[in-house]
Queue: 4 jobs
Job 1
Amino acid sequence: MIHSLVSLKSIRWSALQIITAGLLVGGVAPLTASRAIANDYSRCAADLVGLGIDGETAAAACALAFRPTEVSGCVARVAEVSAIAPRDALSACSRDRRPPEVATCVANIHDALPVPDSRAVLTRCHRSLLPVRYSDCVVGLAETGNLSTNESLSRCISAGYRPENVAPTYLPMN
């Protein structure tokens, strides 16, 4: 009987230790994650200031972002591949839900085609719901459809444009 009481106490003590350790570890993990997120905000602001954006504007843009380093990365990439000022790129990148895809869209179009107006490219990549797919459309139409860059930008962003007689119909031709 004594033996069972001793082993029961050791089991209770072990369970108490496990619960305490679990609470400690569970309480420390969110603190570590929140500090990593805080570093993302700091890195975002530092990157934007490094690109020539004033500190107040950089702080406001980074504070509003869910993933701040995506916003600063978007601005840096757009400014790198085009003639767009970082402040103008920040406007589009900070208001988009997919900043990395906007930057990829702008980069894809600039890499593949001659671009007379970089601002039009940025604006349309920002307006598109699927920016990478949009850039694929623009590049594909311009290269194979013998369209100018501006014309392919307009055709791909236009939801109302529907080419006719492309897909077969299954209605009998009477």
Job 2
Amino acid sequence: MARPKAWLSWSSGKDSAWSLEIIRRQGEFDVQALLTTVNSEHRRVAMHAVRESLLRAQADRAGLPLVTVPIPSPCPNAVYEEAMARAVARARGEGITHMIFGDLFLQDIRKYREDKLAGSGIEPVFPLWGLDTQELAQEMVRQGLRAVLTCVDPRKLDASFAGRLFDAELLADLPPGTDPCGENGEFHTFAYAGPMFRTPLDVERGIVLERDGFVFADVCDQKPDV
């Protein structure tokens, strides 16, 4: 019997990457593509600020097509929802019945996703939902997932964490009250290695700068698109 076809909401970060790994291990769904919103002007992943060239390299290493949803910056919510509705309609037209998300415990985010997919013919799936984030973060590191902190909210975590590797040392250094997976918006990441990829991406950390109240650390490939 054919498995249900799914797209996976891909932020370029560790949680979406780990969701892909878990879904593949479980074998219940046939993941057909990765879905990502991209800043149409700067050609970077929304919020994570990862270069589109690296996003495409991730998809290649994961062995999956990439579906990008261009959005402006700043992006009014109505514009975002229209763009996502078109993507959902495309998915449904291609026989997709499920959308996979890497959310961990924020109930309002989950409800938003469920509400927006209601009646679309596509059902949301949350493979990491409710897991202990301390245990989850440690498991990711033990299993070889590697990532860079590309965005830090300095109101929630010291700016010096921008550009650091997501590894055991980082988890030990996080101050009390910080979610080890950054689920409260403390930080966002770019995953460059792990069991979900055929081979690691060859990347290096670039400049760190502050913009719009956040601290961003650039990540470059060997031939950065600047």
Job 3
Amino acid sequence: MLHLLPLFVTALLYAGLGIYFWRSLWHPPHATILPFAWEKPAILLPLLLHASILYQTIFQPDGLHLSVGDALSAIAWMTVAVYWLASLRNNLEGLQGFVLPFAAISLATPLLFPSGHILPHTGQALFKVHLHIAILAYSLFTIAGLHALLMAFSEQQLHSRHLSSLLKRLPPLLTMEHLLFRILWAGFIFLTLTLASGMLFSEEIFDQPLQLTHKTLFALISWLIYATLLGGRHFYGWRGRTAIVWTLSGCVSLFLAYIGSKFVLEILLGR
């Protein structure tokens, strides 16, 4: 059972930081456009609180609980964690205003979509590997999707010749594009590993490597979308709006693959 006070405090911290970062993109609170030294460490507090909430919610004495709400919350946590680690070496300025509000909203999803179902096969090592890789892949593509939205917004600002403080704090569009494809390559590798481990797990449990379910179909579509995008980038130099559209299309397909299927099964069908 979720304790509401830690949930509320964590969501409030995420939301407060998200609002601060979003406002600072448009109206920097200090004379220079460099971030304050406390900004990145401040994200660690709600991140650690969120991890504690997830541990208490998912790991129950009777087994592993991972409802659609828990899955969204776990993906959001991993998204913030990956973003925070990546921001130590890369200029991800601007993404905080997207990532942190997403994490704040995700904390309410286990309350909106609770589930008493125990996740099957959680005792098997292969399943645990598959689950962790899948959540990491989802998180990387969530960051890629948010990054693509930020790129689209920046491009619109440039075309309108509106040189706001937003553009002053963001990296050049070409740098953002290179970073997007680095994230996409990492996500694609983990998505490939997710599909491969899922096939091995299916072979071990059901004696067949591939079950053509809703989840599998959309996961394969996502894989093909990202494979096409990365191939188009390598061979034809795809960039700009083409890269943004393909990235967001893959994110939607991947969202439908896992979250969509869990929503239909748990919420609509009650399984």
Job 4
Amino acid sequence: MSLLVFYVVVLTLGILSMGFQMLGSRLLSPHFGSSIDVWACLISTFLAAFSAGSMAGGTISNLDPVQRRKSQLVCAAVSVLTLAVTALWGRALLAQIEVAFTSVLVGVLVSCVALFLLPVTALSTFGPQCVQFLAQRGVAPGKASGLVYGVSTLGNIAGVMLTTFVLIPNFRVSSLLYGWLVVAVVTLAALLRFLRSPSSP
């Protein structure tokens, strides 16, 4: 039963990550439009965050237990705080960035980095740690990696579809961002509890 809950948490992380990208596109649209250039900057920012977060998470996985737990708390705190900044002040920051840069492309890049890079990077650090969680419980490393990233990718798909076709048409983006923040707090709290549990099967 506990492993089922663990997979639900991993799935939810996937939903949070890619659903956040769809919300990000709605935040950017009133200021910069929704052209292919805007999408290129947005997708590239998320991919850069996934890459940096995965590498950082791999490093965290190999720390001694005390340093690893401290790093996990820092990553969770960064995720929550930066999501809160986007939810509370995202539109105000975008309005200032739009005025500050004459180049739309530069403005979009600065906006994506300012609002999306840190929260997605911090969330992505937990992927490798989830792999390690399973590997420490007797799952072969290759299988553990496949399970975590397979379930997470299913969450990515669900996040895109659910956010695009159900949530955005029925709720304000600002309300959804607050919802993302609440779900992130609950999900990360559950994940931290899993990652600190004894490693015996």
